[in-house]
Amino acid sequence: MLSAHQNIFLIGPMGAGKTTVGRLLAQTLAKTFLDSDREIETRTGASIPLIFELEGEAGFRAREKAMIDELTRRDGVVLATGGGAILDPDNRRALAGRGLVVYLETSVDEQLRRTARDENRPLLRTADPRGRLEELLRIRAPLYREIADLTVNTDGLLGRRVAAMIGTHLASL
Ligand SMILES: Nc1ncnc2c1ncn2[C@@H]1O[C@H](COP(=O)(O)OP(=O)(O)OP(=O)(O)O)[C@@H](O)[C@H]1O
Ligand SMILES: O=C(O)C1=C[C@@H](O)[C@@H](O)[C@H](O)C1
Ligand SMILES: [Mg+2]
């Protein structure tokens, strides 16, 4: 049985549905929903693309690291992380040690479909988004797998269905 204090951390690539599924799952479990990307934007008053422009990816990663450390210390939350949060070993330790980690696995085809109309992801502002997503996944998939307690393939599934599948799994613990 899942305790009220248990944290759920969603990891996975851009377009995996961490934000979408996280919000639904938090409702189902009556937990607080947090999103590290959104929290960074709210506190800085700047969009992620603007942060990348002004401070580079390194600047964004430093902000993300401080945010992951802070948010994973909370209690009873569903936290949607940024797609690259798992790159940092301290972030991986914080996520693995302070909650149950759910990896939303998604094919590059599906990621492309889901992110096509969205300009908010600086790493996809390239002539070859497919190549970029493939390269990111090659580097990151082992890191997602390394800390995942549960992996859900989201291809062809509505966010609602993914949230329900995770809820069912958690109820069986
Ligand atoms: N299971 C799903 N089926 C269909 N569309 C989805 C699904 N999950 C998310 N989407 C859509 O895909 C887009 C991206 O989803 P979302 O923002 O939740 O991804 P994310 O994992 O949080 O990405 P990021 O790492 O960039 O924050 C949204 O427009 C959302 O409505
Ligand atoms: O995959 C990534 O590295 C990113 C994913 C988004 O969630 C944001 O954190 C940002 O656009 C970088
Ligand atoms: Mg998100």
Automatic annotation (TrEMBL):
Q: Please list the GO terms describing molecular function.
A: ATP binding; magnesium ion binding; shikimate kinase activity
Q: Which residues form a coiled coil?
A: none
List positions binding ATP: 15-20, 121
- The portions of this protein that span the membrane are none
| Positions that bind Mg(2+) | 19
Q: Which residues bind substrate?
A: 37, 61, 83, 140
Q: How is the cofactor bound?
A: Binds 1 Mg(2+) ion per subunit.
Could you tell me the EC number(s) of this protein?
2.7.1.71
Q: Which GO terms describe its cellular component?
A: cytosol
Q: Which cofactor does it need?
A: Mg(2+)
BP-aspect Gene Ontology terms: amino acid biosynthetic process; aromatic amino acid family biosynthetic process; chorismate biosynthetic process
Cellular location(s): Cytoplasm
Group of enzyme by EC: transferase
**Which pathway, per its entry?**
Metabolic intermediate biosynthesis; chorismate biosynthesis; chorismate from D-erythrose 4-phosphate and phosphoenolpyruvate: step 5/7
InterPro entries listed in its UniProt record: P-loop_NTPase (IPR027417), Shikimate/glucono_kinase (IPR031322), Shikimate_kinase/TSH1 (IPR000623), Shikimate_kinase_CS (IPR023000)
Does the entry feature the keyword Oxidoreductase, yes or no? no
Quaternary assembly: Monomer.
Q: List the NCBIfam families hit by this protein, alphabetically.
A: PRK05057.1
State its role. Answer: Catalyzes the specific phosphorylation of the 3-hydroxyl group of shikimic acid using ATP as a cosubstrate.
The entry assigns this protein to a family as follows:
Belongs to the shikimate kinase family.
Task: Please give the name of this protein.
Answer: Shikimate kinase
Q: What is the lineage of its organism?
A: Bacteria, Pseudomonadati, Pseudomonadota, Gammaproteobacteria, Candidatus Competibacteraceae
